[in-house]
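Morning - iron/sulfur cluster inputs below, output right after.
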Amino acid sequence: MVEIKIGGIKEASTIDYPGEMVSVIFFCQCPFRCPFCQNWSLVQGNDCDSVPVQEIMKQLDKYRKYITGICITGGEPTVQIDGLFELLSETHNRGLLNKLDTNGFYPERIKKLLSSKLLNYVAIDIKAPFSPERYGKVIGNISIGEKAVKNVSETLQLLLQFGIPFETRTTIIPTFNDQLQEIEQIAKRLNELHVSRYILQQFRASGGTLDKSFAKLPATKPEVLRELAKLAKKYISDVRIRTIEAGEEKIEIKEAR
Ligand code: SF4
C-alpha cells in the first residue's frame, strides 16, 4: 500500500481553490530551498508522518458532505509522485475536483497527471525572472537554477497544451523581489508564453521562514502589490493580488478618456 509523507490535512478551506470548498493536504519534501519559505517544516520533513493513501481517503470521506474538491500543496507534492497519483485517482473516482500547487520542477510528473486527466486546476509558482542565476538564487540553490528555468517553462507549456485552468503566482518579499523591473521581466516572459492569469501574493512571516533572517521582514504592503500588479497588467489580461487584508483583488486599469 502506498504511503505519503504528509504534515497534515486541513478539513475545509474556501481560499485554496477558486470558488470551491476543499480539504487541503500538505505534502512533505521539496527540491527547492527558498529562503523565504513559510512551509519550512514540511520542506525539512519535521513533523511529517507516513500515512497510507487509504487512511487519507477515510479522513476525506468524513468531510465529503461539504467539500467539492481537494487542494494538494506542500512542500512540492510531485516529489512523491506514486502516492500523489494514487490519491488523485481515488479523489477523482469519488467525483472530487483536484487542485495541485506546484513549483513546476518536474514536468514529466505533471504530464503523467495531466495525461490521466487527474487535475482540474493547477497553481504554479514563478519564483523569479527566467534567468538561471536569479532563479537559482531565489530558490536557494544556484546549482539547479538552469534546470529550474527549463523545467518550469516546460511545465507551463504542458499546462497550456492540455488546456486546463491554471494560475501562475509569485510571492512578493519586501526588499528581496519587490522591484518593478523584476516583475516586469516575469510578466513579459509569461506573456510570450501566452499565460493569461498571474497572481501576486503577499508574504507574511508569521510562522517563521526557512532562512531565519527572512522572518524579520514585514508583510508585503497591499499598495506595493497593487503597483507591481498594475505593471504586470500591461502584459497579462488577468492579474490579481492576494492579501490577508482584502483577500483576492482583480486589477482593472481604467482607460483615460
Ligand atoms: S516556498 Fe520554495 S522551498 Fe518552500 S515549499 Fe515552495 S518551492 Fe519548496
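Note: The two ends are 64 Å apart (CA to CA).

O.
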